[in-house]
Amino acid sequence: MNHRGRAGEDRAANFLQTQGLILVARNYGCRFGEIDLIAQDLTTLVFVEVRWRRQASPHSLLETIHPHKQRRLWWTAQNFLAQYPHPPPCRFDIILVTGTQCQNLAWYPAVVLEPC
Predict the structure, then answer these.
(1) Taking the model in full, what pTM does it have?
(2) In angstroms, what is the C-alpha Rg of the chain?
(3) Total domains present in the chain
(4) Rounded to whole angstroms, how far apart are CA atoms 20 and 40?
(5) pLDDT at 64
(6) Exposed (0-12), middle (13-18) or buried (19+): which is 36, by Cβ within 10 Å?
(7) Could you tell me which of 43, 42, 48 has the C-alpha nearest to residue 20?
(8) What's the CA gap between 87 and 85, in Å, rounded?
(9) Looking at residue 104, what DSSP letter applies?
(10) Is the CB of residue 98 less than 8 Å from the CB of residue 104?
(11) pLDDT for 54-78, tens place per residue?
């Protein structure tokens, strides 16, 4: 991961903690892929994809996460949830970090990803 990508993830993790979420894992990976951040929001497990861009784009943020990437995120989340005898409710969030110093952040909770 490059320096800005790591800085963007750090900024996103800190932001989520200021919003009351508890960080559970960073860069969780398995054979299906990797999830940048996993956090707990009360009783909900939150899988977070962090996207860094030099500047905000007029394109839909979800368009930057192609169907193949969405499937990989979904399957990676399923792999993580397999460790729970009774998996908690979960959701997928996207955090967009922009600016050369990662100074801007936009949080998109509960985006809809297409499972396989």
Answers:
(1) 0.87
(2) 14
(3) 1
(4) 9
(5) 75
(6) buried
(7) 42
(8) 6
(9) E
(10) yes
(11) 666 655 566 778 888 889 999 999 9
CA–CA separation, 37 and 13 (whole Å): 7
Q: Which amino acid belongs to residue 41?
A: D
Of 16, 18, 11, 29, give the one whose Cα is nearest residue 91.
16
Beta bridge partners of 92: 47, 111
Closest CA to 32 of 95, 104, 81: 81
Question: Of 66, 77, 64, whose CA–CA distance to 32 is shortest?
Answer: 77
H/E element holding 107?
strand 104-111
Determine, yes or no, domain membership for 97: yes
Q: Which domain holds residue 93?
A: 3-111
Report the first-to-last Cα separation within the chain, whole angstroms. 26
Distance CA 106, CA 104 (A): 7
SS3 50: strand
In a domain, 116, yes or no: no
Torsion angle of the four alpha carbons 34, 36, 40, 45, in this order, in degrees rounded to the nearest 10? -40
What is the rounded average pLDDT for all residues in the chain? 86
Locate 3 and state its tokens. 């320096």
